[in-house]
Structures are given as structure tokens and as C-alpha cells.
Design goal:
Elements (H helix, E strand, L loop, with lengths): L1 H14 L2 H11 L4 E6 L7 H11 L1 E2 L2 H9 L14 E7 L4 H13 L3 E5 L1 H6 L7 H8 L4 E4 L2 E4 L3 H16 L4 H14 L18 H8 L4 E5 L13 H19 L5 E3 L5 H4 L1 H9 L4 E3 L18 E2 L6 H9 L1 H8 L2 H15 L1
Parallel strand pairs: 1-3, 1-10, 2-3, 3-4, 4-7, 8-9
Antiparallel strand pairs: 5-6
Helix pairs in contact: 1-14, 1-16, 7-8, 8-9, 11-13
Length: 352
Amino acid sequence: MVRKLELCIDALLYITGLIRLARWWNRRAGKRLVVLCYHRMEGGYLREHLRYLRRHYRILHLETALEELYAPNEEMVHNWDHRTLLALTFDDGYHDHYTYGFQLVRQLQVPITIFLIPGYIENRQRFWWGEAEYLLSHTPVREATIEGKTYHLEKPDDRHALLDLIEQRVRYARSVAEREMFITRLYDILALPMRTEVEGDVQRSLTWQEVQEMQHCEWISFGAHTMFHPILACLKDPSELLYEVAHSRLAIEQELQCPVRLFAYPVGKEEHIGSQAIYAVQKAGYTWALTTIHGINTPKTDPLQVHRIVVDVEQPWLLIAAKASGLWDFLIALGRPRAFFKKCLLFIGRER
């Protein structure tokens, strides 16, 4: 019901011209850069998203867009295309970026940037955020005792409680080693074979061979996303934090033989980053770093805390249109998108 209501709101915003007005306002407001943050590519409406966005925005490679955003006005070459700048980013380097996205961006000729996690490319294991669901959906045991508490897995409440425990422990681990030891122990407790390379799994990463093939495409560029995707603010050892940030860049540069100037913080909200991570990014020599802190960027945006708007391929293109324009989030900030929708319906009713 909520999903249908949101879709109705988006349709109303589009039909009434408010989204077009918001796009016009952004153009009039000066230099702006919208950066969308996706993860998966397949299984939704990405094709429809890209068709809409390339019609209404000037889509550039992320580096090119950032260079233009931060360039002094006197250095800017006059461009007849006054549409708002937009860049498309895809975090984590899922395998469907190759099997589905590679062909799609070539067909539509839309530039994208993929943020890679070299550790997962090399170890071929399942991303840590997919482990909890995998473990509980494949374990043959009916009960498990973990950290002194017994969970009866045939009971939905216990399954949900264990799922939450696993997700919290792996997400907020104080080191990658701590996280991996906990996951390995779970495999033993839940009577599953030891972790091996993932084949044909939705949580599978790209391979270096696939990345190198994609590199030759003019529409795809790459950035770094740490070595093993820990939440940087949780790491207790500053040297591990610096390793995660700096070595991911070195690993990608070594494989692709090209400089890497872009970094994306894992998870990426302010509480997940921390001041030490920003220092590490600066020390590692990145030019720009991307967060998931919501917002549209201006020349005053900190280049090491670039804002992104998190979206998903399963969202309808109307919602993407509203989010990219900033209108949907303006209504959310006011806390009244549904109230707005109801008022519009009342207005339409009166006009009839």
C-alpha cells in the first residue's frame, strides 16, 4: 500500500510539472552535481532509469563531472548544454555489473563509475553482508548456541534474532580479522562446509579479468572502496584503517595500470566514516571521496565528503526522477509527501 502511494505521489509530481520545475530551479541555482549511488544492476528498472536520466541531465564520468564542479568559473569552457550535471556510481563491484550492466551502458552510451573491493575480487568469497542470510537459509541444524544463547531456528522470532545478531557483529566488527573469525565460527556451529569460492551466487564479485575487459570500454571507470569493506569508523587499529584505504588504491592501479583518484567510503554515512578515515583518504592521495550523505553537490562541497543520493534498480523511474531533482527529498524533509498527495486529490476533487 505504501509503495503504491509513493508511486502515485511520484506520478502526480511528474504530471503536474513540479519535477520539471525542480530541475529548472537546480539549473538556475548555479553549478550543481547530482551523484546517484546504486549497488546491484540487474533485476529492476535500470534501463528505464538511464533513459530518463540521459534525457534530462548531462551525464558525465564521475571524475570529469567533479573536475567541472570544482573548476573556477573563469576556467570553465562555455557549454551550450545547461542541464544539471549528473554522475552514476555503483558500489561493490557485483558480478552483474559485468553480466548485465556492461552491455547496457554500451547500448545506451551512458558513463558509469564502479567502486571495487580488491580483497573480494581476489578471495572470491561471498560479501560479508550476504553471509547471515546464506547461513540461516542453508544450515541443516534446528538449534544453535551462539555466545551463550540458544536459538531455535524453526521459530521465526529466534531466526530473526539470530539474523540480527550476525548482521550486527559482522557490520560493526573492530577489525577484518575479527569479522572473519566470527563468520568462520558460525559455519562450524551451523554445520556448514567451510567457506569456498562463490560460484553463481548473487553475492559474487567481479574478477580482475572482467574488470580489465570493462576497462577498455569508454563508458566505464573505476574507483576504490577499501580492501575488504569494513566500516572504517569501527576499526580500532589506525594502521589497518590506512591499509584498507591506501592498499585498495594500489591494488587497483597495479591491475589496471592507471591512476585511481576516486574513493567511496563503505556504508558511507557520517557515523560510519569518522575523522580518521578522512585523514587516511587524504594521506593515501585520493582527489575525491564519496559518502552516502544525502545531498546535491555544489563547488562548496568538501571534495573528500562528496554527497550521493542512494537509489535502487527496483525503484520505478518516476521515483528516480523525483529524487534526482531533489523534490522528493524536499517533501520528505518537510515530513509531508502524503499530506501533499491528499491535498492535491482534494484540490482535483474540488475542480471537478
